[in-house]
Write a structure and sequence with these properties.
434 Repressor (Amino-terminal Domain), elongated
Length: about 150
């Protein structure tokens, strides 16, 4: 679901006007209106504030691609070869080939180390700044199976 539709739904479920939500987020009513019409989108840090303010999971606001994605790094599964492998050689349903092979994680790393390692690639491939990639991963990854 597009973030514009999610924002409208969240706001209406909480019986808030655009002005009410704008005041809670310290933005203008026009900013909320543009987000809801899909003219612009709130940045990652604003999505975190909206999630906290409206008591919804931040993943509801982060526009993830449709389909499954790695429960360690968040990478979408586009092809069968993107899946890691279990100890018996079968494809992993949860983890990608860059994180998981033969039933084990390839790197013994902390969440912070994974973000540091992966954020530059995400920034480049998604045409966003490194800070935005770090912020996005910092919001998404703690919600994934490996890091819960």
């Amino acid at each position: 679901m597009a973030i514009s539709d999610v924002l409208v739904r969240i706001r209406k479920e909480r019986n808030l006007t655009q002005d009410d939500l704008a005041r809670k987020l310290f933005v203008t009513r026009q900013a909320v209106s543009r987000w809801e019409r899909g003219e612009t989108s709130p940045g990652i840090d604003m999505c975190k504030l909206i999630a906290t303010t409206c008591d919804v999971p931040v993943t509801l606001l982060l526009e993830m691609p449709d389909g499954d994605f790695c429960q360690s790094c968040g990478m979408p599964f586009f092809q069968e070869k993107d899946h890691g492998t279990e100890a018996d050689g079968s494809p992993s349903e949860e983890f990608c080939s860059w994180c998981y092979r033969d039933g084990a994680f390839l790197e013994d790393e902390t969440l912070e180390e994974l973000i540091e390692r992966c954020a530059p690639g995400m920034a480049e491939s998604c045409h966003i700044t490194l800070d935005e990639a770090v912020s996005f991963m910092g919001a998404l990854l703690p919600t994934l199976e490996r890091w819960r």
